[in-house]
Amino acid sequence: MSPLALLETYSRAHPQEVLLVEARVGELEEVVLIFKGVSSSLTGATAMDADVPLLPEEAVIVAVDRLRSPYTPSAPVYLERGIPWQDFQQRCLGVS
Q1: Cβ distance 8 to 37 under 8 Å?
Q2: Model confidence over 29-52: pLDDT tens digits?
Q3: H or E element in which residue 80 lies
Q4: Which end of the chain, N or C, is less packed with Cβ atoms under 10 Å?
Q5: For the stretch 28-63, what's the b/e string if a residue is b when 16 or more beta carbons lie within 10 angstroms of its beta carbon?
Q6: How confident is the prediction along the chain (96 residues), in pLDDT tens digits per residue?
Q7: What does DSSP assign to residue 43?
């Protein structure tokens, strides 16, 4: 399962949360918002076709922020900030 698919699965299981994901694609920084299994790019275009991956395979997820839903850009409520990808990935996989 790709990292983005893993995050989308996590977000479907936690609909009270919004994930803000920081990723790197080469030299570019990408920010992706995930809510209820749906991903949207905050730094670039989001394809209308859900089958088109939002992040390429070479993308490296750096960190994940957990926010309370509903997400309000002008007043976000953070539950956790800057969770390193390895830590969040273990959480998603149920590894402590």
Answers
A1: yes
A2: 999 999 999 999 898 877 777 677
A3: strand 78-84
A4: C
A5: eebebbbbeeebebeeeeeeeeeeeebbeeebebee
A6: 889 889 999 999 999 999 999 999 999 999 999 999 999 989 887 777 767 778 888 899 999 999 999 999 999 999 999 999 999 999 888 754
A7: S
Return the SS3 of 75.
coil
Residue 89 CB: number of other CB atoms within 10 A? 17
DSSP 12: H
Query: Angle, nearest 10°, between helix axes 85-93 and 3-13?
Result: 60
The token pair that represents 41 in the structure block: 């790019």
